[in-house]
């Protein structure tokens, strides 16, 4: 089931006529700032849906900003900047009142759209009725909370569209969430580097086969690009597709032996959301096209035998990426296998430069 909440992406205009801005954005933000903490004007996965029940609220940090998530009386998920509009006290330590949050500091009540509905200490205060706290547009899909994070106060959310595998009713999937102590760009570099599967994951249950040498090519598409081996297919982590849709994601397939149960090839959809410049929220959906009774067999087999093995593979990635120096991608000697890495870095540098230029022109 997919639910949405309406967007309010700007802060109130300050006294003196300064222009409204998107949360967390400064006029002096550089391309490096944006690249480190997360590019804007796109959808990001925020948290698994099951982690926030009705009547609960939860503080999270994403794109180097503190947010508070809560469900209103109807169960609809809301996402606000974690600041009371009065004195910027965190709303996440306040009280959940069903359709609103009450700040613990002075009792100011803010609803899910970011509108101040009550100032108990001064009824009739001019703050009442103002949309004074940033509220993001949120969609719940694929057991995950997604939010559109704007660049400017005028940014319009793009249509929300799930990755192909997750939108296909004939595909069965299992979500996976983890937080890693490493920059989000390291995750993207890692998944755009299929050759590491033949070494780092050599002893895994699914990537033990194939050559340890290969040639690669980039194949452009109308939504991104494929980075793939030219001399091997269907043996190991032989290709990855980078997709620019509603959100950025990678799509790949890992061949499975017959003893892995019924269904087609094993697919993975992967995304990374910056927590801050040094930490990342990592989301995967493990997929397989399978129907009928075979679907139930596959899901049982995955839960009882295969899930733990996939966690082992992820742990191998996490351990290496967390061990890298923060400037590891500045001291390298790249070669032909790294065409995918250089391409994704070039894309994100260009994006960050364009967004920094917009801010320089908008925030005057």
TrEMBL record:
<keyword id="KW-0408">Iron</keyword>
<dbReference type="InterPro" id="IPR017941">
    <property type="entry name" value="Rieske_2Fe-2S"/>
</dbReference>
<dbReference type="GO" id="GO:0046872">
    <property type="term" value="F:metal ion binding"/>
</dbReference>
<dbReference type="GO" id="GO:0051537">
    <property type="term" value="F:2 iron, 2 sulfur cluster binding"/>
</dbReference>
<dbReference type="GO" id="GO:0004497">
    <property type="term" value="F:monooxygenase activity"/>
</dbReference>
<protein>
    <recommendedName>
        <fullName>Rieske domain-containing protein</fullName>
    </recommendedName>
</protein>
<keyword id="KW-0411">Iron-sulfur</keyword>
<feature type="domain" description="Rieske">
    <location>
        <begin position="43"/>
        <end position="147"/>
    </location>
</feature>
<dbReference type="InterPro" id="IPR036922">
    <property type="entry name" value="Rieske_2Fe-2S_sf"/>
</dbReference>
<keyword id="KW-0001">2Fe-2S</keyword>
<dbReference type="GO" id="GO:0016705">
    <property type="term" value="F:oxidoreductase activity, acting on paired donors, with incorporation or reduction of molecular oxygen"/>
</dbReference>
<dbReference type="InterPro" id="IPR050584">
    <property type="entry name" value="Cholesterol_7-desaturase"/>
</dbReference>
<keyword id="KW-0479">Metal-binding</keyword>
<feature type="region of interest" description="Disordered">
    <location>
        <begin position="1"/>
        <end position="23"/>
    </location>
</feature>
<feature type="compositionally biased region" description="Low complexity">
    <location>
        <begin position="1"/>
        <end position="17"/>
    </location>
</feature>
<dbReference type="Pfam" id="PF19112">
    <property type="entry name" value="VanA_C"/>
</dbReference>
<dbReference type="InterPro" id="IPR044043">
    <property type="entry name" value="VanA_C_cat"/>
</dbReference>
<dbReference type="Pfam" id="PF00355">
    <property type="entry name" value="Rieske"/>
</dbReference>
<keyword id="KW-0560">Oxidoreductase</keyword>
């Amino acid at each position: 089931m997919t639910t949405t909440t309406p967007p309010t992406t700007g802060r109130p205009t300050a006294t003196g006529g300064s222009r409204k801005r998107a949360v967390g954005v400064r006029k002096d933000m550089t391309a490096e700032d944006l690249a480190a903490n997360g590019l804007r004007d796109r959808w990001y996965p925020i948290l698994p849906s099951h982690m926030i029940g009705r009547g609960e609220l939860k503080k999270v940090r994403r794109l180097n900003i503190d947010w508070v998530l809560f469900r209103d009386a109807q169960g609809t998920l809301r996402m606000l900047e974690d600041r009371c509009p009065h004195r910027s006290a965190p709303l996440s330590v306040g009280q959940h009142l069903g359709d609103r949050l009450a700040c613990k500091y002075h009792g100011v009540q803010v609803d899910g759209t970011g509108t101040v509905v009550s100032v108990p200490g001064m009824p009739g205060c001019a703050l009442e009725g103002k949309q004074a706290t940033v509220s993001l547009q949120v969609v719940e899909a694929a057991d995950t909370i997604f939010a559109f994070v704007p660049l400017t106060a005028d940014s319009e959310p793009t249509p929300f569209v799930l990755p192909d595998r997750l939108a296909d009713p004939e595909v069965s999937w299992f979500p996976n969430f983890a937080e890693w102590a490493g920059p989000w760009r390291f995750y993207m570099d890692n998944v755009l580097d299929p050759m590491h599967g033949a070494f780092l994951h050599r002893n895994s249950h699914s990537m033990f086969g194939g050559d340890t040498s290969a040639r690669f090519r980039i194949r452009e598409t109308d939504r991104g690009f494929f980075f793939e081996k030219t001399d091997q297919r269907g043996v190991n982590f032989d290709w990855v597709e980078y997709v620019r849709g509603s959100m950025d994601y990678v799509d790949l397939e890992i061949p499975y032996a017959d003893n892995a149960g019924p269904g087609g090839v094993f697919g993975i959809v992967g995304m990374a959301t910056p927590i801050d410049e040094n930490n990342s929220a990592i989301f995967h959906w493990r997929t397989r096209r399978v129907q009928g009774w075979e679907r139930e067999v596959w899901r049982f087999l995955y839960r009882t035998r295969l899930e733990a093995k996939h966690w082992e593979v992820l742990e191998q990635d996490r351990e290496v990426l967390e061990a890298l120096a923060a400037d590891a991608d500045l001291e390298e000697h790249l070669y032909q296998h790294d065409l995918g890495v250089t391409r994704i870095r070039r894309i994100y540098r260009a994006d960050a430069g364009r967004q920094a230029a917009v801010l320089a022109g908008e925030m005057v």
